[in-house]
Amino acid sequence: MTLLDGVISEKPTLFYAAVLLAVAYPLYSIVYGLFFSPLSKIPGPWLTRISSIPEANALKEQRRTQWVNSLFEQNPGAVAVRTGPKSVSFNHPDAIKAIYGHGKGHEEFGKSSWYDAFSTTGESLFSTRSKKRHAMKRRMVAHGFSAQSLQSFEPYVDLTMAKFLKKMDKFARTQEPFDIYFWFELFTMDVMGELALGSNFGVLEAGKPARYSTLVEQSQRFGNLSGMLPFGKASVRVLSWVPMPYVQRLWKARVEYLDYARQALEKRFQEDRKQVLPSGKPRQDIMQRFIEARDPETGRQMDFDELRAETSSLMVAGASTGSVTMNWMTYYLCKNPEIKTRIVQDLEAMFPDNRDGANPLPYTRLNNLRLLEHAEIECLRLHPPIGYAMPRDTPRQGAEICGLYIPGGVAVGVPAATIGRNAAVFARPSAWDPDRWADDAADLATMKLCFLGFGYGSRQCIGRNVANQFVIKMIASLLLRYEVELEDPGLVLGTREFTIQKPDRKYRVRIRPRKV
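Structure tokens predicted for Cytochrome P450 monooxygenase (516 residues):
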């Protein structure tokens, strides 16, 4: 007699009950999810009622945002679609305030467990799910993103810009077509190195990307995949045990990237950060502000692991999103020469003594050019870097959103790429029209509410002003210095999702010195 036989003979009722429960519970969950859950009435593929596989597959195929958009297209008029057993995406202005607004107490929609996959060596401003810790972190570093800080960062942006324009001058002389998005990526890598870590990566001068740029993308994809799978939410290491080449490649990239961030931060600590600028003032950068930051209430400072997590987030948030926004601005301005001409006229009027763009353009003045600002916003409306929903969990007692009851503990959100093209909010939603943001006849309040290019509410991107600074300075400098045109005037760019939404193909531009 085996040990198992003894268990069965002594307690057959308990044994068979356990077997029955093991079989019945999954079956019950499937039947409940398919037919009886309050979410079962929300449209979406039937498999999303019981599995996250469709969304995970869309992520793997680099079309997660497009997949969610297609669900709304297949269900016209729907305010929400089901994207998983316990996840729902909304496409209505009312959902933005309900989900991302400043709820209190039991009404609070907390960050979902998806964010846990992005807590690396510690919680960052982006990944922390605790409202209290987020508020503390934001208090500690808010001064590092103030208007005064922007002015102290600007010399580093100008130094990097000068290197970029030197490369562009060579292309202007030969007028050979080239991949400008590639150079935008090199620029943002170096400028974020300067701003976040106190030194650039030398990629502009080398003319080739740093290894870290590939690692950033793959590490983020691993976090995304882990965050949407039940076992991955519990621990990112669980997903790393899956013996699939695709998963293993992403996991190795994550490990290597975190080690890269560690080495960069250690170097940052070892070097003297009190460098003196030509102006005679001591050097300041974002990481210096993070290092010096203290919680005004407790006096607490960040430890090394926490700073390392913030370093990882900064490099992703600044470098990748900035370069892709410059790309779309260049593309749409080339496709709409009348808007481009008006912006150039604004620049010439603002800088009559710098009509060839030979000198740096101060952001404090560029920030007053409304058409240039609206061109950027319109690109971010059509092509937000993060197109899918930033998930929040419904409160324990559930919530009513846009007339739909959603049980507690369900991940809900509003995809920026979907609401940004909502025809009930934006006239001609797929058209690039910067002037819509200055149209007094339009419902500007609702349009601004539905612009999620930088998020919404207390969790919106704290680095928005930093990104705006170098994006606006870049585009203004290019337009004032060169004539820019597409090699193929008939080019139609689409998007492909590499965690952030990038162009679906390579393309080239020609530039030549602008006649003044």
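The chain has one domain: 37-513.
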